[in-house]
Specification:
eight-stranded antiparallel beta sheet; 462 residues; Immunoglobulin-like; five-stranded mixed beta sheet; single chain; 40% strand; binds zinc ion; 3 domains; 7 helices
Length: 462
């Protein structure tokens, strides 16, 4: 019976063309067959439409991770969307499920954050098994499945740091160098002083070097440098250093802002910075306060563009045969018509020689800035490596381009009156991580040997 019916149906299927011309069209049956084919095709499409398993990234993919370190797993499925993810840590016979999550339809991207804190793993290697499925019906309604195994290492111990450079002496407004080693490779390291951070740099010998400043405006009692170092698993160690401080008194000066200076300097050179300020005296104040602040911020940002090894050698040169009309950290009181209108701190040293005197690079390095910089006028910044930079302001001519390597003594430009300068001179800054320090130390061969160069040798440098 069944066989006969099947044969009959089959025959009628082959006889379709003929029967459509016959007197009794079988419309209902054709409709049924079309629907059936549509259903089969749709079902097949549904079943096979997504053959791509979810994709995972992040975590990290290899290497050490800390117990408290936040691990971030990113999942993506462009087809039917994510259905489920399970993350299991496997260490020997121990298996700990760290993430077990299901997603509703339409979840094409997800981010799961977790730590190993509650995993009960011990320090050492372990495997992280990531299993993820999507909403596909294929295969056998299970969804496309991804399994990824990451070889990681649990490291819950912060690094041990050893300071090699003994006690560091700091003059207020001056610099110091700290040399230290770590029990393991560090992910980040530096010295924190109040809200300042001075990055440290690993040398070929494995020692870390950190040049830092005792900021001129920080009270000696508030100067408490701390090494802050994290290993590659993010375990952080904070440790103090031995140091001595020498408080300094900084000079003061009074500067009379004349009407001629306003008319011949401030208005022509600075009006474009503040076009809406028409009063010359008000314009001067905005230049002296706002533009100065912006320029200091720019200099601070350039402080990050530094080489990881020292590019300089020996004492720093100064502009030859120059008088010093302005000292470092000098508080300047500005007067107009006999009245105090402003007070600012001068954060470099002014050097006046003949007009348009050639300016030598104070030491070897790389030009990281050459151009106009507000109150500094035409300006050059040279990076000497290890956070150390020098700045040359008020130039009348710049002879070097950004990216140029310069040798100590090489002419980089000529002195001038560009920017906020009352007469032809060079404004010279020494910067550590973009913060001004007293240049006098860097001109002093004995200070440099005792405080910097001798310590570089501890790190295996010449
Ligand atoms: Zn100056």
């Amino acid at each position: 019976m069944t066989g006969n019916r099947w044969v009959r149906r089959k025959r009628s299927l082959f006889g379709r063309r003929e029967s459509s011309f016959s007197r009794r069209p079988r419309g209902g049956s054709i409709f049924f067959r079309v629907v059936l084919v549509a259903v089969v095709v749709t079902a097949a499409w549904y079943y096979l439409r997504d053959l791509q398993a979810p994709v995972v990234s992040g975590v990290p993919a290899a290497g050490p991770v800390g117990a408290k370190q936040e691990l971030v797993l990113r999942l993506a499925d462009g087809g039917t969307g994510l259905r489920q993810v399970q993350v299991t840590a496997v260490q020997g016979a121990k298996q700990v499920v760290l993430v077990d999550k299901s997603y509703g339809s339409g979840s094409h991207n997800a981010e799961e954050r977790f730590t190993l804190e509650k995993g009960g793993l011990v320090d050492g290697p372990f495997e992280l098994v990531i299993a993820a499925r999507d909403h596909a019906l294929f295969p056998l309604l299970q969804g496309n499945r991804l399994e990824q195994r990451l070889s990681l290492e649990l490291d819950s111990q912060p690094p041990t740091l050893t300071v090699q450079s003994g006690t560091t002496n700091f003059n207020q407004g001056g610099a110091g160098l700290v040399v230290f080693t770590a029990s393991e490779e560090l992910g980040s390291a530096g010295i924190r002083v109040a809200d300042h951070f001075f990055p440290a740099f690993r040398q070929a010998s494995g020692s870390y070097l950190c040049l830092l400043a005792f900021p001129w405006n920080l009270a000696p009692g508030a100067f408490v440098p701390k090494i802050v170092a994290s290993d590659r698993a993010g375990n952080e160690r904070v440790t103090g250093i031995y140091f001595r401080t020498n408080a300094k008194k900084f000079p003061t000066d009074r500067i009379v802002v004349s009407q001629a200076f306003l008319d011949n300097k401030i208005v022509p050179d600075f009006q474009h910075y503040f076009p809406e300020t028409s009063d010359p005296a008000a314009l001067f104040l905005r230049v002296n306060r706002e533009l100065r602040g912006q320029n200091l911020k720019t200099i601070l940002e350039h402080g990050r563009e530094t080489a990881a090894t020292p590019l300089w050698q020996g004492a720093f040169q100064r502009l030859p045969k120059a008088a010093v009309p302005g000292y470092f950290a000098q508080t300047r009181t500005y007067l107009m018509g006999g009245r105090t209108v402003d007070r600012q701190t001068h954060l470099g040293i002014d050097l006046a020689s003949t007009a348009q005197a050639p300016v030598p690079a104070a030491n070897s390095g790389k030009v990281i800035f050459a151009g106009e910089l507000g109150i500094y006028g035409d300006c050059v910044i040279i990076d000497h490596g290890l956070n150390l930079q020098t700045l040359y302001g008020h130039l009348s001519q710049i002879d070097v381009g950004e990216g140029t390597q310069v040798q100590k003594g090489e002419t980089i430009g000529r002195t001038g009156t560009s920017g906020l300068a009352g007469g032809d001179h060079l404004h010279f800054d020494v910067l550590i991580a973009g913060r001004q320090v007293n240049p006098l130390e860097w001109w002093d061969a004995a200070w440099l040997e005792n405080n910097i160069v001798g310590k570089l040798r501890l790190a295996g440098l010449p």
